[in-house]
């Protein structure tokens, strides 16, 4: 199990620096295994893994950065290694994938994925520990230019055991590499990510890797929900990344099923035991009243985010500030979305507030945030958390005209619109977040006629950005804000 894969990994590490000096035409590059969904979601069916990546990505041919002399040298290195190699990693590389970001510009990040199919005897981890593979595939492949930042570390990758080695390059001051070794579907794979800047962003994306199918080997138990999505920031990030993946794949049935599982079980009892009788009953009443509408709007949000490139961020909520003293244990998190492309729509959106209840993350509240985008003072931006805020109020709602084509086709449902409510109370529709295309124009036309009593900060009206919903129901023959 010694040398062939180590030489291969060393070649990949060499290319990870060479690629930053050139930018080949992606149209000339050969196809790689796996596919990219929406330029930032990579899926490899052979390994049953998916990666939600920051920014826009493209496949590239790593040999496009090599001179003829370098290609010849690489070939000689591999042939020499194969001639003397013994063990599990001597066969051909089954998977060889290279990606870079941004797409069409000087690369900031690069990712390399390679895998070896293992004979059954080498899949027995009691006889052939994963660490031995990791030592050969990582420590044995560094060469002279890459220097470890620490020891080979045991980590959890997508709910499975893995090993990680963090390295930096001796020739650059900002580049970092993150090398992972793990098993999937009878293959041992090496995932290498290299960042020229902002390495923490790439590392977070790599460690949010998800396996979309259970392990093939019967000796590896499938993780329970609590193990797959533990009560941590990373656990919630994994769950939300899976929701995003299903939305990008337009798997609405699976998305609905996952959202339904995020309901708080026996919510009346949970709210009263956590917040006390009086406050708990009030919160439970609100939760139950809006549960189904919130789930539908939550599903629509993922349909909207699936059309964008962006990043999920999560923070532990300050429950003492939000609720005061609580009667029971409460682990609560707030999740947000930051758009990283130039598509229409808000740059920032709240995803929701989540509690960890009975071993699972539950959607406590689908947040309808109002973001202040201007003040009445020229050149003075609004503070992130202004004081003395009086929320705006809808004072004139115009119902939409039900589109005749949608009526004839028996189409109904909800349309989500991102809007600006101006200081004078008028409404500007920023874009359609989600909803049926036959219903959306009527929703836009109606909402543009709505009028608000504007939000005020310290007594002064301000522009705000928010989201509104218009529901079309055939039984009512009209739209209605929910």
In short:
This protein is 28% helix and 30% strand. It is built from 12 helices and 26 strands.
Give a structural overview.
The protein is an alpha+beta fold and 482 residues long. It has helices spanning 4-18, 68-84, 130-137, 199-206, 225-228, 233-248, 252-260, 267-275, 277-305, 319-323, 404-408, 440-447, and strands spanning 35-37, 41-44, 49-52, 58-59, 95-101, 109-117, 146-148, 153-157, 160-169, 176-184, 187-195, 210-211, 310-316, 332-339, 348-357, 360-365, 371-372, 389-390, 393-396, 413-421, 427-434, 451-453, 456-457, 460-461, 464-473, 478-481. Strand 25 and strand 26 form a beta hairpin. Mean pLDDT is 81; it is low at 1-32, 214-222, 378-384 and 478-482.
Topology:
Layout: H1 4-18, E1 35-37, E2 41-44, E3 49-52, E4 58-59, H2 68-84, E5 95-101, E6 109-117, H3 130-137, E7 146-148, E8 153-157, E9 160-169, E10 176-184, E11 187-195, H4 199-206, E12 210-211, H5 225-228, H6 233-248, H7 252-260, H8 267-275, H9 277-305, E13 310-316, H10 319-323, E14 332-339, E15 348-357, E16 360-365, E17 371-372, E18 389-390, E19 393-396, H11 404-408, E20 413-421, E21 427-434, H12 440-447, E22 451-453, E23 456-457, E24 460-461, E25 464-473, E26 478-481
Antiparallel strand pairs: 1-2, 2-3, 3-12, 4-5, 5-6, 6-11, 7-9, 8-9, 9-10, 10-11, 13-14, 14-15, 15-16, 17-25, 18-23, 19-22, 20-21, 20-25, 23-24, 25-26
Helix pairs in contact: 1-2, 8-9
């Amino acid at each position: 199990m010694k040398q062939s894969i180590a030489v291969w990994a060393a070649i990949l590490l060499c290319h990870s620096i060479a690629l930053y000096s050139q930018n080949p035409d992606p149209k000339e590059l050969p196809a790689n295994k796996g596919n990219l969904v929406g330029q930032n979601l990579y899926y490899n069916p052979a390994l049953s893994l998916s990666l939600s990546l920051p920014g826009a990505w493209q496949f590239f041919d790593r040999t496009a950065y090599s001179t003829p002399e370098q290609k010849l040298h690489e070939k000689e290195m591999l042939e020499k290694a194969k001639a003397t190699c013994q063990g599990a990693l001597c066969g051909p590389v089954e998977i060889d994938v290279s990606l870079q970001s941004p797409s069409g510009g000087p690369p900031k990040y690069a990712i390399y994925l390679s895998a070896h199919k293992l004979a059954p005897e080498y899949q027995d981890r009691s006889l052939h520990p994963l660490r031995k593979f990791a030592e050969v595939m990582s420590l044995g492949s560094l060469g002279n230019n890459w220097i470890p930042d620490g020891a080979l570390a045991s980590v959890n990758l997508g709910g499975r055991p893995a090993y990680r080695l963090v390295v930096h390059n001796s020739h650059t001051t900002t580049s970092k590499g993150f090398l992972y070794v793990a098993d999937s579907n009878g293959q041992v794979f090496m995932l290498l990510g290299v960042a020229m800047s902002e390495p923490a962003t790439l590392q977070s994306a790599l460690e949010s890797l998800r396996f979309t199918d259970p392990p093939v080997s019967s000796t590896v138990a499938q993780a329970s929900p609590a193990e797959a999505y533990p009560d941590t920031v990373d656990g919630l990030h994994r769950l939300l990344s899976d929701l995003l993946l299903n939305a990008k794949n337009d798997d609405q049935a699976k998305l609905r099923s996952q959202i339904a599982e995020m309901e708080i079980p026996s919510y009346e009892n949970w709210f009263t035991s956590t917040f006390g009788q009086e406050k708990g009953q009030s919160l439970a009443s609100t939760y139950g009243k809006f549960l189904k509408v919130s789930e539908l709007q939550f599903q629509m949000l993922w349909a909207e985010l699936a059309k964008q490139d962006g990043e999920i961020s999560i923070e532990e909520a300050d429950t003492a500030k939000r609720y005061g003293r609580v009667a029971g244990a409460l682990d609560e998190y707030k999740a947000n979305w930051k758009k990283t492309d130039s598509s229409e729509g808000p740059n920032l959106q709240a995803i929701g507030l989540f509690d960890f209840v009975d071993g699972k993350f539950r959607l406590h509240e689908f947040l309808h945030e109002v973001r202040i985008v201007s003040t009445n003072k020229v050149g003075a931006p609004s503070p992130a958390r202004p004081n003395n805020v009086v929320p705006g109020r809808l004072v004139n709602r115009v119902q939409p005209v039900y589109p005749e084509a949608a009526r004839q086709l028996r189409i109904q449902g909800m349309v989500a619109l991102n809007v600006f409510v101006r200081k004078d109370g008028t409404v500007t529709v920023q874009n359609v977040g989600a909803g049926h295309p036959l219903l959306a124009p009527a929703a836009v036309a109606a909402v543009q006629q709505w009028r608000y009593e504007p939000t005020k900060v310290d007594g002064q009206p301000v522009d705000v950005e928010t989201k509104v919903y218009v529901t079309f129901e055939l039984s009512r023959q009209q739209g209605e804000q929910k």
